[in-house]
Amino acid sequence: MILSKIRNTLKKIFIYLPIPNKNIYCLFFNLYSLLAGSSSRIFYKDGFYYFKDRKWKFYHRKQGAYAYLKGLKKRGLELKSTYLINDLKFNSNDVIIDCGANNGDFYLCFCEKIEYIGIEPSPIVFSNLQFNVQGQLLINKGLWKSNEKEIDFYLSDEGGDSSIIPIKNYTKKITIGTVTLDDVIDQINKNIKLIKLEAEGSEPEILEGLKKNITKVEYISMDVGYERGINQESTLAPCVNYLSHNGFKIIEFKYSINRIVILLKNTKVNPKSKKIEVVPPHGFEPRTY
Questions:
Q1: Which residues of the chain does CATH 3.40.50.150 include?
Q2: What are phi and psi of 177, to 5 degrees?
Q3: E-strand spans in the chain?
Q4: In principle, which of 41, 99, 116, 278 could form an S-S bond with 197, CB 3.0–4.6 Å?
Q5: pTM metric for this prediction
Q6: Where are the beta strands (DSSP E) in 52-165?
Q7: For position 80, what pLDDT does the model report?
Q8: pLDDT tens by residue, 34-54
Q9: What is Dmax (Cα atoms) for the chain?
Q10: CA nearest 201: which of 81, 100, 98?
């Protein structure tokens, strides 16, 4: 009971109080890890925080407090539960596409030797992804419904809330290039076991970029919570409408104050299919490929 209170107090300090000194941040982080029974320890160097027991780094302190205080192994277990994939069976060489990869945390979910594709447009966060996940295909672009050489991107990296959709309280607006899911799947030319999609509200547009290769995707797990734009709208309805009309069914659903996560399975997986009708979200015309 006493240790639990101490851990909770330390976590509140991390999240709500600014800690200007980087070494003090490491001290508090490592103390919490010790009390939580985690062997993970961090140190600061050249603008980033590094783990001592694994080749892993992060930049933003608040995100470090939310994600890593209990260690990287626990982080992977938490994300498996969050994205409802605990009961899915993965095999070596299964292809996983991580849309909104951030630091690469979703990669921590897998003990198997999967083929991982991480897509992350934020420059600083992408540098973490490159360091943390090596020997895999990593793409420093945004996902969208079309290929764009330049599109506005609103940075809010501290909480992992950056988005192509305009948002409140962004720290900086930059321009990025975009790619579609169809392009990514064309590039690897393989069936996809799972797409994890968390795009801070731009999920419908990203799904619109998945047309000709949609029958190659077996599972999609999505965060469709209240994150879209200034009005913080959910993307549940347009995403489910699009996918259900194209052969997917919801097999698990989780609602909480902070998230709405759905796991869908494709009932029409057929990689040899050459002609399929794709039913896009409301407002777009159906097309046949």
A1: 76-288
A2: -90, 160
A3: 42-45, 48-51, 57-58, 95-99, 115-119, 137-139, 142-143, 151-155, 172-176, 178-179, 192-197, 217-223, 226-228, 233-234, 248-255, 260-266, 277-278, 287-288
A4: 99
A5: 0.89
A6: 57-58, 95-99, 115-119, 137-139, 142-143, 151-155
A7: 98
A8: 988 899 999 999 999 999 988
A9: 63
A10: 100
Q: How far apart are CA 187 and CA 213, in angstroms?
A: 11
d(CA 139, CA 99): 10
pLDDT at 270: 60
208: left (phi over 0), alpha (psi -120 to 50) or beta: alpha
Structure-token match 């890593």, residue found:
68
Phi-psi group of 136: left, alpha or beta (phi > 0 → left; psi -120 to 50 → alpha; rest → beta): beta
Low-confidence ranges of the chain (pLDDT < 70): 1, 3, 10-17, 270-289
Q: Extract the tokens encoding 163.
A: 């988005």
90 forms beta bridges with: none
At 16, list the tokens. 């709500």
R_g (Cα) of the chain, nearest Å: 19
Query: In one letter, which amino acid is 259?
Result: R
Cα 285 to Cα 104: distance, rounded to the nearest angstrom: 35
Domain 76-288 in this protein, CATH class: alpha beta
Q: What does the alpha-carbon distance between residue 140 and residue 119 come to, in Å, rounded to a whole number?
A: 6
Q: Give, in order, the Cα–Cα distances in Å from 72 to each of 12, 13, 64, 79, 229.
A: 20, 21, 11, 11, 31
Phi-psi category of residue 94: left, alpha or beta, with phi > 0 → left and psi -120 to 50 → alpha: beta
* Dist. CA 268–CA 265, nearest whole Å: 9
